[in-house]
Request: fold
Amino acid sequence: MDDAQRQLLQALTDGTLEPARQAEADALLASDAEAARFVAEHRALWAALGDAFGDTGVRPEARFRSAVREAHQSQTPRRVIPLRRLTAAAAVLLAALALHFSGREEGALSAEDHQVVRYLHVLRSFDVLQQQAAALDLRYDVEVLHAFEGELEGEG
Amino acid sequence: MRRWLLVLLAAALLLAAGRRHLFHVPHDQLTVNRLAWNTLDEIERDALRSTWRRVASNSGPDRSGLERRMETLSRLLVVRRRGNDRSLPSTELNAELAELEQCVNKWLPESAGAPQSAAARVTRRTGRLLNLFLEHLTDARRLDPAERDRLLALPYSRRVVEGLELQKREEIFFLSETSGARDMDELDRQEPLAVVANARDQRRRRGFLGRAGRVMDLSASELRRLADVPPEELMSTLRELMVPKVRRHLEHTDVSDERIEAILAQPYRELERTLDALVRGER
Reply:
């Protein structure tokens, strides 16, 4: 994925993509697994953040944000952080991590839809699974056999 | 006291986030699923939810069988997608599965005694190979003799499960020679049969895994031949192609002629283990 493609996908995830370029972005997503992963990860991250804090729709400008941070740091005196605050911070961090990891794969979906999306490829072929139960069992047995091949003289 | 309760609550939330899945689905497949989900209308989504509820509510004796079949089907679909075959119609999938029994009948013909089903013949051969695997691993000092004895005393189904975990560990060890840290993490998360399939695929492209794979290459015509060979002939074809290369390689070392013949007579995976150890010793 080159820089131009990355910018295209960034615009897609930010919601700033021009409608005329939507088809180009769709084609890239369909043909490039890395591009699809890039978009999925961004969406999952934003979904997790949205769940945790609510989406204000505001994206702070980077220079403004760093300027504010610098000004704040220069004005705030250093002080000892009480244990109670450290504990609360640890709890918030753990909760944020939990939210991040639970939502990183399928974004903001219900618990049931998480599972449906996870196994979507199998659930779509569920008729095959029911009709070919014996054949799938045999396929599993053959896969196990292949797993231990190459241990017998004259076999390979 | 209240602050520790807060931490405990958050830790519990973290553990709940890592809830148990039926089986591992590769990251790329999850992305494809998510994109496919976005294209479905509510009627299609409801149909899939209903199918999932049937799976999730199944608490009968066949639950583990159902989960295993789902996992097997998932591997089949993931492999097909990697081959740029994004969708696999049910009819084609049915045909492929139906062909498998014919293939097994040709590969492992019935013996003269009592008739046995294809599944029974596969299971019998697997049991023999698995026991040899445990013996060879012990000979190579990669498995403790007491652990081998424990595994050999297990019922067949349990021995297969633990044997596959052991094989996964072995394949990851050999794959680590050529894979990056990120690939190794992904392999570690995968089910044993997916790791084994990956390793077999790599042998089709490299001949040997581990350090031996670094010193013995395959020509373009040999690679083409390996790409086309059916799964049941992979090991014998690999052996046919690689043994002359191993002989040439060993003749340039200080290994005696007698020892070379003994090494070359080994089954393919034994040969791979021996060469890996030899190349490590050469360094």
